[in-house]
Write a structure and sequence with these properties.
Elements: E1 2-10, H1 19-35, E2 38-49, H2 51-62, E3 70-74, E4 86-87, E5 92-100, H3 101-111, H4 115-130, H5 138-154
Parallel strand pairs: 1-2, 2-4, 2-5
Antiparallel strand pairs: 3-5
Length: about 160
């Protein structure tokens, strides 16, 4: 069982970050780590930003000069093996997940569900990237989507919930 220190940094002032939203972020991180059978002590940093901030990061790290919803920066390269587990011996920074709350709000409206569900999804998506999941090719995308849905279901944030 993992002991996770979730550090939330609100680096934007366009969308109010409530205690309820912070609790949801903590729950999403911890559930993803638990479902993925990660053990040990680790820290995850969640940065909440606006479109302008994430666009700068996207341009700098991905050469895409546009805002995006979530970026993940893993502190170590992990390779996911089906049925495997991740074990951390001492507290280790798993990585940073950067989420644009502006994009999350727009996408919640676009997809017809709550802002909280969208933020929860983006947190889970970012954590799975930190654990080595990807969605560039068909099979990887299917596996990652299945993992996302399983974790969201565990925290009662399935697609059908508004």
């Amino acid at each position: 069982m993992a002991n996770v220190n979730v550090v939330i940094n609100n680096l934007q002032d366009k969308i109010d970050v409530t205690q309820k939203l912070e609790e949801l972020i903590n729950k999403a991180v911890n559930t993803a780590i638990s479902v993925e059978k990660v053990s040990g002590d680790l820290e995850v940093s969640i940065a909440l930003v606006d479109d302008e901030y994430i666009q700068k990061l996207n341009r700098q790290y991905r050469s895409l000069d546009e805002p995006t919803d979530v970026l993940s920066f893993a502190m170590r390269e992990t390779v996911f093996e089906e049925g495997g587990s991740f074990e951390f011996q001492e507290e280790e920074l798993l990585g940073d997940v950067v989420i644009s709350l502006e994009r999350a709000k727009e996408q919640a409206v676009e997809y017809g569900h709550s802002f909280e569900r969208e933020v929860g999804f983006l947190v889970v998506h970012g954590i799975l990237h930190l654990l080595g999941y990807d969605h560039e090719v068909g099979e990887e995308k299917v596996v990652m989507r299945q993992r996302e849905e399983e974790i969201l279901k565990a925290i009662d944030l399935t697609r059908g919930i508004n």
